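Annotated sample (chain length 148).
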Amino acid sequence: MVACKILVRIGAEPFTDGHAVIRAGDYNGKMPTTKPILLVEDDPDIHDMLCDEIKEAGHTADCVKTLSDALAKVQPRSHALAICDLMLPDGSGRELARLAEAYGIRTLLITGHPDMADELERADIPHLQKPFSLALLREVLQQLLISK
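Output written by the structure step:
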């Protein structure tokens, strides 16, 4: 896969993967327990691949393709993490991210647009830039879910 950019700041010690920078927290080697994850991705192939990967990582996956479907599922602490494409056919993933964070749900935005990824990075918003490897997704899931 092509190198991707990511911004996830959790602990103090950084490690890198290509252009990725992850600050790992002290989790004493524990893997996260099964967590409910909301995925919002409108591209059918990416949607199915990411949904399957979340399940293979041992989590429950609530996978939808539109902002309106996601907004109907989000409730206070309903999910441990919401992963949302930034550009959806019926709105912006930022809208979901704001609501999810207000409800105590961590968020990870994904985008295939370099300009938007740069904007997210400048704003210190956790994100992945497409294309990214499934191994990197698993690493980010582990970091975000362990630190919760």
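Annotation: The longest helix spans residues 44-56.
Annotation: Confidence is low (pLDDT under 50) at residues 1-32.
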